[in-house]
Amino acid sequence: MKSTILLLCMFISVAANSQDNKKYADAMHRNLQMLDTAMTVTSFQLLANSFERIGNAEKDKWLPFYYASYCFARVSYLTDDKSKLDGMLDKAQLLIDKADTLQPSSSEVYAVKSMIASARIMVDPASRGMQFGPQAAMMLEKAIQLDPENPRPYLLKGTAAYYTPPAYGGGKEKAAALLEKSISKFESFRPADALSPDWGAARARQMLEMCKE
Amino acid sequence: MKFLLILFSAILPLLHPLQLNGQTLLNGKVTDEKGNPVVGANIYIKDSYDGTSSDVNGEYRLLTTETGDHLLVISYIGYETYEGSIRLEGASHTINIAMKEIYNELNSVTITAGAFEASDERRITILRPLDIVTTAGAAGDIYGALQTLPGTQQVGDQTGLFVRGGDASETKTFIDGIAVADPYFTGVPDIPSRGRFSPFLFKGTFFSTGGYSALYGDAMSSALILESQDLPAQSTTSIGLMSVGGSIGHSHRWSKSSLGAYVSYINLLPYINLVKQRVDWTKAPESFNGSMIFHRQISKNGLLKAFFSYSPSTSAINYADVNDTASVILYNVHNRNLFSNASYKDIFAGKWTLFAAMAYSSNDDDIVINSADSVFSKHSLIQGRITVSRPAGKLSAVRFGGEWQHAAYTDQFANVLYQHNYGQHVDYTALYAETDLFFSPKVVARLGGRMEYATQIGKANFAPRTSIAYKTGLYNQFSFAFGQFYQQPGHFFTYDNASVNYSRADHYLLNFQNITDKQTFRVEAYYKKYSRLITTIPDTASNGAGYAQGIDVFWRDKETIRHADYWISYSFLDSRRQYMDYPIETTPTFAAKHTLSLVYKQTIPSLNVTVGATYVFATGRPYVNPNNSPEDFLSERTPNYNNLSLNASWLTAIFQNFTVIAFSVNNVLGFDNIYDYRYPADGSAAGRLAVKSPAIRSFFIGVFMSIGEDRGDE
Would the CB atoms of A174 and B712 count as touching at under 8 Å? Predict the structure, then answer.
């Protein structure tokens, strides 16, 4: 009798578990589909909130925090009111640090960290460039070192080069080379699973077009 | 029964998604404290997936399948997160929430009376450190840039900052809490010298034109508080080539420490040969500087900084002899200056911040006049400071500590007829305590006091310092400050005289400022009462007194003109004093009634070029006419002062290394400014000499290259 109860309980908890997993996967999938087409501050903000809710409910999964941070970073790039950027980026940093704790030494996490550092520069480029420019570059080097096959750090490097004048070591030519490298890596890149980061291929091609204009 | 319970509780969660009728609707509006909608707030049931975001009207609609007792969470960046318990049982609830803004040092009231801050920190400040090096007319000199701010005077023939009716000795420079005895190069008379320290050394510049903190003392008028850079981000090599010399430096970054070494050599000879000079240099100014900077991260928050700098310099000039047009006076100066300091800052037990600094500096001047009269001065200063601070509540803080200085002076005056040696040791000790009390995020009071004791005077003083600031809106606030400020007499006055006392100034300031990241408006009215100023007639004593009052206005705008940044400073100054050899109380030689500065900077992003112009106007300053009776002492004024300076800088790459090419010209329109008159012994007006700058215009061109660590670019 006892063993039957135990078995029943085990069965129930496994069922509950897979039920939970399905709920997690469904919620993430829904958000990731929306993320693919997100363009506006509002949609990124909604997604950031939603990913953060999933992260807070799950607690031990790094991807919701990773995506929430990524969304806040994207919001900051689209926000005109520069006085709001630091608050937003603090939030993004907090979330990516949570992801970093749950999934240490992830190339993807470092790529987002670099996006956050780059966004900090926009608040006051003249005086912040010296501090956050090298920091953003360092994070990208770390991301490449952790996974040389990850196309996203090269996309971010290419984007940075595109917006950096040749005088500061940037320029379209340099950007194009990096973006081509990113695109070739996108061709062979397969995400670890359906929920893992897989953004950027379209952006890389679009940026490359811009370089050739 | 027990089994059934276990089974039931295990199955219960599975049933949730099926409970289609068990949904609860929550709706409402999220606003800030003023009732404005909060857009994009995250509203959710804690530990569940159910949640939503507020819309453009701040409204939300949240349908949840959860049941029972839960927590409703509403969060938004910059606001305190709301958490409220709620019972979900199918009925709908309307929950309106007014969110409370989080107050931190970034959006709370700050003490602003008297303060001009240039900082990289996040707080919106009046200036950024970069503004100092890109201001036309400043020629990359910190003090030159500060002279475009209200409250400062244009004294073109003397070294130093003259602030609100105070002379240059009343402004003191501090680097990382350490008083700098000789912040300027030793020069020759009538030609102002630059500051010794490069603006690139500092991450923060805090210039107070009055009413400053009890942490700083021995300065009656003004304090310039410089904070050195932290650990550099990466290794860099820098090379500078200038029309007057060159410099090279390298700083190496390890994971937890960094070491930098810099040398520079300046020689004005080629420049002087090229640009016509109105004075006769017999030895063009020549200087060498060697410095080292060390940083080490000792713990998570603990940072050790050490700085060492040594610079010898020489120059000599032939002055026209006002009493004998056929002859000249040769003035020859040789200076050796050493400055070193080390500081350590760390946080203990989570809240106690300790700051400790030690420093040694020495300055030797050998001055020979006409190969006959000589002055050999040797001054050294050892000092230390410890400050402890801790937060007291959410925003409030307390600070206290002490500083100690030991100064040794020797001065030797000699000519063929006599020789006189002076020597003196002075110990100066100060204890200070201060608290920033926030009554609300909108009202802060700073209450502090400082006790000082100096051995050559043998008396103690106590200086209370208070400031109050009240935030009247998102971007604007009023500040009021009152303080007493003491200063030791210059060491030269205490060699033969033990009866002189501290000089004293009482400051009263009222300030209003409106500051956004694009525009700044600031107006400040002040009254300063001077007492016990040093007088030298009939004998050296502390019998002088005086006052200074005025209004300073500052407007800076980075918004109206695309890619342009300009600021306007205006100072009205009414000051009179009796001090030194003044027979009466009168307006001193360094006080102009009206001073106006316009600084304009235009960036041309497509060319990576920034051009700038600075125009300065000041009404004439008093000068000594020996023909006047004592009642008319300093009653005449020099002509008005005008100066237009231009600069341009071009950011480019040379061999792929970040390079700045800078060009500037001072007094481009060639205004023939007269700073002072010097009369011959017989007082004849025809024989008087006008004191002017050494050249009518001055030019500068420099190329500065920064070679960053190879970042492995493909």
Answer: no
Neighbours of B230 (CB within 10 A): 15
Q: How confident is the model at residue B368 (pLDDT cuts 50, 70, 90)?
A: very high
Phi-psi region of A71 (alpha: psi -120 to 50; beta: other; left: phi over 0): alpha
> Chain A residues with CB inside 8 Å of B49's CB?
23, 27, 53-54, 57
| Cα B302 to Cα B346: distance, rounded to the nearest angstrom | 4
Contact A85, A123 (CB under 8 A): yes
Question: Which chain B residues are Cβ-neighbours of A42 within 8 angstroms?
Answer: 40
Pairing of strands B443-454, B171-175: unpaired
Q: Which of B6, B50, B711 has its CB closest to that of A9?
A: B6
* Candidate from A53, A135, A165 with C-beta closest to B51: A53
pLDDT for position B132: 75
- Binning pLDDT at 50, 70 and 90, where does residue B236 land? confident
CA distance B526 to B624: 28
Average pLDDT over every residue of B393-409: 94
Quick check: B522 and B477 in contact, CB under 8 A?
A: no
Percentage of chain B beyond pLDDT 90 is 71
Of B11, B51, B652, the CB nearest to A167: B652
Whether B667 contacts B697, CB under 8 Å: yes
Cβ distance B7 to A8 less than 8 Å, yes or no, reads yes
Task: Say yes or no: B6 contacts chain A, CB-CB below 8 A.
Answer: yes
What ipTM does this complex have?
Answer: 0.87
> Which chain A residues have a beta carbon less than 8 Å from that of B238?
none
Interatomic CA distance for residues A19 and B638, integer angstroms: 90
**Quick check: B382 and B405 in contact, CB under 8 A?**
yes
Burial of A83 (0-12, 13-18, 19+ CB in 10 A): middle
Per-residue pLDDT of B548-577, as tens digits, reads 999 999 999 988 999 999 999 999 999 999
Q: Is B192 within 8 Å of B157 (Cβ atoms)?
A: yes
